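Hey, quick one: can you model this chain's 3D structure?
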Amino acid sequence: MTIHRRLKELDLDLPPAPKPAASYVTVVEASHLIFVSGQGPLVGADPVCTGRIGETLTLEDGYRAARLSAMNALAALDAEIGLDRVMRIVKLTGWVSSAPDFYFQHRVVDGASDLLIALFGENGLHTRCALGVHVLPFNIPVEIELVAALKPETAGEES
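Sure thing. Here's the predicted structure for all 159 residues.
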C-alpha cells in the first residue's frame, strides 16, 4: 500500500510543501538518508496556533500542533523525493515551547510519532528526542525534524 493511499484512508490531505523561512533548505538527501529541516504547525506561512504548552495552550493543542508539523515534514519529503521512496522513519526530534512547570513534552511529540506510525506501520517506528524549550520561531508551540532512510534501490541517486 502506498503512503498516499494510507493518507486517504485516514482522511488526511498533505498540505503544500513548506518553504524555508530563513537561510536553509527544507530537505537534504545524503547517501541513503534524507533529512527534513524543522517544521512547525503552519498553513502556508501562517502558524495555526502560537504560545506555550502548559501556559496558553493545552497538551491536546500541542499534540495536534505536532501532528500538523509532521504533516508539513511529510509534504516537504513528498515534494522533494516522493513518499514512496521512504523505506522507514529513522529519527524524529521534537521541540516543545512549554511553560516551566510542564513536564509532558513526550506526550506532545506523540502527535507526530502516532501519525508516522499510522502511515508507515512498523517502518514508522523511530528513535526520538522530545525537548522542552522556552520559545520557538514565530512563537509556534512545536517544531518537528525528521530523518528517514530511503529504499535501497533509490539510495544515493540524485533527485
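One thing worth noting: The two ends are 23 Å apart (CA to CA).
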